[in-house]
Specification:
With 248 residues, the protein is mostly helical. Helices cover 48% and strands 9% of the residues. It has a domain of 121 residues: minor pseudopilin epsh fold. The chain has 9 helices and 3 strands; from the N terminus they run H-H-H-H-H-H-E-E-E-H-H-H. A 3-stranded antiparallel sheet has the order 2-1-3. The two termini are 34 Å apart. The N terminus is likely disordered. The structure holds manganese (II) ion (MN). The site of manganese (II) ion has 7 residues, from helix 2.
Length: 248
Amino acid sequence: MKISPSLDRRRFVQLGALAAGSALFSGRAVAATPVGFTLPPLPYKFDALEPSIDARTMEIHHDKHHAGYVAGLNKALASAPTLSGQPLKQLLTSLPDVADAELRTSLRNTGGGHWNHSFFWETLTPVATSGTPSAKLAAAINSDLVSIDGFKQAFAQAATKRFGSGWAWLIVQGGKLKITSTPNQDNPLMKGLVPDAELGTPLLGLDVWEHAYYLHYQNRRADYITAWWNIVNWQAVSDRFEAAAQST
Ligand code: MN
């Protein structure tokens, strides 16, 4: 990669962190990561998703909430050196093996929070580049979930009905698309912790914690969900679908 002389050090450090974060998130091994997990930078500016999500919400959500999950995860792992050094996905799928209940809960909440938010940022894009589902994904939605409109309605309903804090998901399960929902920072990868009916490969995830929308929407979760559809990165979601289809 050619580094422009005008690229200042701060940007260079950001790019390095981005590369490390992406590799970490995709599960590829990162050479020697003694400092633990790092907060991946947003792939766009804080105000890039306006008006669906305002800049202040994005800044607090990423710099405070997501950063808090990363810090909490590293703190929990500091007390469990035998669990350190593995990819996040591997850690999340082996949580039932963690005997210490308090540590297991801590890793579930903070590790889930780190994974879910890293996934969430990459699921979104400015409205101008939102696009549409690929032909293959659209065909699968029409086949497994009746229609695109029917899918959006059912997904929004799952997100609306999630009591308290949690997530709505579109997953691939047994080769079929399915809509699910999990509480807190649980996700469809947490085998042995969430019900089998909610396990699968996530394609799309919607954060319905109040911290994701309260500044702008207050109690109007339904309005946040409606506006959120405008900033879904359908290219990323379609790519995930193609990868999931190839691995089954
Ligand atoms: Mn969140």
